[in-house]
Write a structure and sequence with these properties.
202 residues, alpha+beta, two-stranded antiparallel sheet
Length: 202
Amino acid sequence: MTEMAYRPQDDIVLLMKQFEQEVKEAPELPDAATRLLRARLVFEEALEFVRACGCTVAVSGSDGAKTVVIDEISVVADDDIKPDFTEYVDGCIDQLVVTYGALNAAGVRAQSAWDEVQRSNMSKAWPHCSVCDAVLVRGSREDLVHPEDAGAHGGNWQAVLKVHKREDGKFIKAPTYSPANLKRVIEEQIEEARAALTAQSA
């Protein structure tokens, strides 16, 4: 398995710019709408991880009442809480620390899993022909091909990624989108670990 240079933050800059999200050039607390979006995304991913661990979120009453499992929970803006830029950064870094810790606890190397998720995320953008703007399609070997034929424009075209949105602003995944195959990545890492152990004991 060939791994690319591991630059997760740079990859996310690329992803955000592709999907027309602002990337600031210098430290500055984001606006209220962006903070709410980021809080929701972080919270949703945290809940997804909690459920993947076979756990759930519960609240117990202060009077010793029975613990209640929460099925629906959401993040909302609170005008009474003043945002704190330092704590914003601290929260992001702490999530990285515990996330890498969770991966390490499971014996998973982040880079190849990251590369696969980044590939999948970038495939949400629509590939267009750089000459005539036609939407490209997947060929028989999973490569992108021109819908007219392989020799369109004398073969002098390139794929240009574009974002398609609904009227409400929600992104529409490209027909060429392919979900991340993390099962394959994990299985490859397991096989590599087995091969390394076999080589050590030989």
